[in-house]
């Protein structure tokens, strides 16, 4: 036992606070490492991330960066491991789906309708957004993104806000529709499935967080079509968010592993090219904070991440993290 304790304190500079935070992290997130070597490895990574958080937040306090970091459930992952977790390569999926022809339409810029948009929108305040979910270790971000947009359309069409089934999309909107379950998918492909087959509620088809066989025994809520927002045009995206509802978007989420609060901007290191898109999210509004325009975005990593499961992304600044590169919404 003495030799074990001695290891912790000689393998780099370790404090009792580090150990306390590590114990709290493992307890909170259910981390159990039965092999001592793996625990040591994860603790070392955790300490590196603690140092990163401390360094970054010191800059945040000085006003040198626009967002803060914190310990999240990904704090025992390296950056490469976090990118592997994201898993969803929208660029590859788009290439694989290039020969598919679905009945979507493209919403392009109309200067007359763009100039009269409200200065701020939040569909949460309109009761059109369900609670934040947690996709777990399944790469089902695309399904949760699509479901969020579908839920708002269900409300507008049927007058009720229901939790719709992301699991049904994972299981049933499969390779036939160009998706790969927990290995990734496209929101447009999910919308096409719902147009043809419909979607059940979360209660009828609960989330399991794995790719399973399709258990759809009845049709649920259907949509008429879906619309692709003009590529990299944030003005058109704002119009869709303001006039239609929450919009499904892909983004480069490689640098938001430890996000806490504030407005993420391009200084984080993210890219806006299609090949860099690796995560599906839901834009539920936009606004301004301390003179800076932002998108309000719902994530699917649980309420412990970010601002109760949400984050803010710099708006109208060269398409931050590709938020307007691949965006679409359903039409009920």
From TrEMBL:
SUPFAM superfamilies in UniProt: Cysteine proteinases
InterPro entries, alphabetized: Papain-like_cys_pep_sf, Pept_asp_AS, Pept_cys_AS, Pept_his_AS, Peptidase_C1A, Peptidase_C1A_C, Peptidase_C1A_papain-like, Prot_inhib_I29
Listed GO biological process terms: proteolysis
Domain Cathepsin propeptide inhibitor: 22-82
A GO molecular-function descriptor: cysteine-type peptidase activity
Secretion signal, residue range per the UniProt entry: 1-15
Domain of life, per lineage: Eukaryota
Cited Gene3D superfamilies: Cysteine proteinases
Domain named Peptidase C1A papain C-terminal: residues: 117-331
Keywords for the protein's UniProt record, in alphabetical order: Disulfide bond, Hydrolase, Protease, Signal, Thiol protease, Zymogen
Database matches in Pfam families: Inhibitor_I29, Peptidase_C1
Family membership: Belongs to the peptidase C1 family.
Record's protein name: Cathepsin L
Species: Acanthoscelides obtectus
